[in-house]
Amino acid sequence: MRRLDVTRERKNCFVPTSEIIAVEETDLNKKQHNSGKWQKMAKPHAFTVYYVKKARNHRWWCSDVTFWCVDEQLCNQWIQALKELLELQKARPKQLLVYINPYGGKRQGKRIYEQKVAPLFSLASISTDVFITERANHAKDNLFEVNINKYDGVVCVGGDGMFSEVMHGLIGRMQKDSGIDQNNPKAPLVQCNIRIGIIPAGSTDCICYSTVGISDPVTSALHIIVGDSQPLDVSSVHHNNTFLKYTVSLLGYGFYGDILKDSEKKRWMGPMRYDYSGFKTFLSHHCYEGTISFQPAKHTLGSPRDKDSCRTGCHICRQSEQQLAEQRKKCGLKHEEDEEEWKVIKGKFLAINVVNMSCACPRSPKGLSPAAHLADGSADLILVRKCSRFDFLRYLVRHTNQDDQFDFSFVDVYRVKSFQFTSKLLEDNESDVTDIGKKHFGQFCRDHPACCCNIANSTWNCDGETLDSSAIEVRVHCQLMKLFARGIEENCKEASRNQSRVEQLL
Ligand SMILES: CCCCCCCCCCCCC/C=C/[C@@H](O)[C@H](COP(=O)(O)O)NC(=O)CCCCCCCCCCCCCCC
Ligand SMILES: Nc1ncnc2c1ncn2[C@@H]1O[C@H](COP(=O)(O)OP(=O)(O)O)[C@@H](O)[C@H]1O
Ligand SMILES: [Ca+2]
Fold first, then answer.
1. Parallel, antiparallel, or unpaired for β 343-355 and 288-296?
2. Is the dihedral of CA 32, 36, 38, 39 positive or negative?
3. Pocket lining: 384 vs ligand 1, CB cutoff 6 Å
4. For the DAGKc domain, which residue ranges apply (predicted)?
5. In this structure, are residues 183 and 205 in contact, taking their beta carbons and an 8 Å threshold?
6. Average pLDDT, whole number, for the chain?
7. Residue of 42, 181, 205, 452 with fewest CB within 10 Å of its CB?
8. Which of 256, 272, 283, 368 to mutate to test the pocket of ligand 1 (most atoms within 8 A of CB)?
């Protein structure tokens, strides 16, 4: 950490209170005061302000500046005044419940938490109850038992799968406590006000990356400490009036479902398993036939082809928040009966992706749908129809560069508020065909009659967990939960440049 000797270098440091992490009396035995006039001073006093320093690419780190003073009383007054200012930051958590998955990603969760995160929480006077999981669903089950009201937030250390577990625990607990039946796909779910913080230690970490702009444990810990809040849409997935799962990032059938299914057998490979299974799945080039029905999201202003992405303070998400508040005033918790039209598409698909957020991650910095919004009450439905391997590769490569991945004749994208899918196999067996799917027939697959469609079903990849049901019903719940994040900040480079300029000028 850098020490800024303010007076000696005739520099001041400008730090907004909201970005101060802690203020502490400086231990002069540890700090050297061998500079300038402080050296001559018999008994100097000092206090240190720890604050958020914004670096490039949305990275935050903890910096500090020490203020030296001749007068002990004056020094204490400063410490007192600054601590009082920090007390006014009411959104900051004081007590957190932490779940660590020791086996996520490269199996570094415990080390990451102990070495990088715990010291920051302790510096910020945050008390924690830490729980290291011993099996899958341990955290979820535990969340149904703990005295949740004791905590200002829940932190999960792991990947998207671990986040999903904690989210299921919290949302499930909330519905149970309010007597809401999760099996009813039309049930209006109760919002979850306890924020979740994600310390990335998984394989993809897409939820963290898409909501913070980087997968970095220190940056995420600092967003938790300053008490950031980012609402998040959550989609519920049902089959035949049975609740299956919630999803916030990717719900994918075909390509991403097959990758996940194959990669589960290769967990020992760590995050590399996705590249291995990705390559294998790419070569197998399976497509799947089925019927998709969806209700377009007419309430939101944006479109998936927008050039602008969702950023901190996004006006489109704010507008959805206002609509949600008005709707609540009008109907209470009751859902507005929605008779809006359903669109139906039948075809053969290499991938069917429903994404609630951009799904940006280190592998694909702009994600599967770069203009998707975190909290607008809609999801983007991406349909990749049967095409050649070469075309599919061209499509995949565009996830890694600046070119438009929707600008292909075999790719369609829609912004939706609900969605249903039934595989051809299931339709043929005449079980569980969605009535809507039966009634309307919109577009048909444009591919050639000679077909190499896989006769078996694919699996759904639901935030990194497999779902075996090939007939599902999905509904977006606007801003059902909140994260300790603020979305991706605009002009991040500019912000950090300005901050250091201020430091130099004053
Ligand atoms: C030619 C290179 C193409 C690269 C294409 C990269 C697209 C990446 C999009 C990633 C979207 C991720 C959505 C998030 C999913 C996660 O929720 C979920 C769970 O995460 P967790 O393990 O942390 O718990 N992760 C996943 O399902 C993993 C998705 C796998 C993405 C890797 C895809 C690699 C594809 C490689 C194709 C290679 C073709 C090469 C041909 C010569
Ligand atoms: N102690 C544990 N042992 C085995 N599995 C666990 C444990 N704790 C959590 N899990 C499960 O591991 C899965 C993957 O975890 P995650 O942290 O997302 O890692 P990754 O990103 O590598 O997939 C999650 O579905 C979670 O339920
Ligand atoms: Ca959304």
1. antiparallel
2. positive
3. no
4. 91-241
5. no
6. 88
7. 42
8. 256
pTM: 0.90
Regarding predicted confidence, which is higher, 340 or 41?
A: 340
- Give the CATH number for residue 363: 2.60.200.40
What mean pLDDT is predicted for residues 219-230?
Answer: 98
Which tens digits make up the pLDDT trace of 247-306?
999 999 999 999 999 999 998 999 999 999 999 999 999 999 999 999 999 888 899 999
CB 255 near ligand 1, within 6 Å: no
Q: Are the beta carbons of 230 and 483 closer than 8 angstroms?
A: yes
Cβ distance 356 to 376 under 8 Å?
no
193: in domain: no
Residue 130 located in a structural domain: no
Q: For residue 87, tell me if it sits in a domain.
A: yes
Pocket of ligand 2 (CB under 6 A): 101-105, 133-138, 158-162, 165, 202-204, 464-465
Pairing, β 379-385 against β 60-69:
unpaired
- Given a contact cutoff of 8 angstroms between Cβ atoms, the answer to whether 348 and 451 are in contact is yes
Distance, in Å, from the CA atom of 353 to the CA atom of 233, rounded to the nearest integer, reads 16
Domain assignment of residue 294, given as a range: 235-329+341-478
Q: Distance (Å, rounded) from C-alpha 3 to C-alpha 175?
A: 49
- Asked if 395 and 497 count as a contact pair (C-beta separation under 8 A), the reply is no
Residue 501 shares a structural domain with residue 375: no
Nearest CA to ligand 1 atom 38: 279
Question: Does 288 share its domain with 421?
Answer: yes
Q: What number of other Cβ atoms are within 10 A of residue 365's Cβ?
A: 17
CA dihedral 295→301→304→310, nearest 10 degrees, is -130
At 330 the pLDDT is: 76
ipTM of the complex: 0.96
Amino acid at 226: V
Is residue 64 part of the annotated active site? The answer reads no
Rounded CA-CA distance 436/140 in Å is 34
447 confidence band (pLDDT: 50, 70, 90)? very low
* Catalytic residue chosen out of the listed positions 64, 160, 216, 262: 160
Over residues 2-24, the mean pLDDT reads: 69
Q: Is 125 part of a structural domain of the chain?
A: no
Residue 131 DSSP SS3: strand
Per-residue pLDDT reduced to its tens digit, 199-209: 999 999 999 99
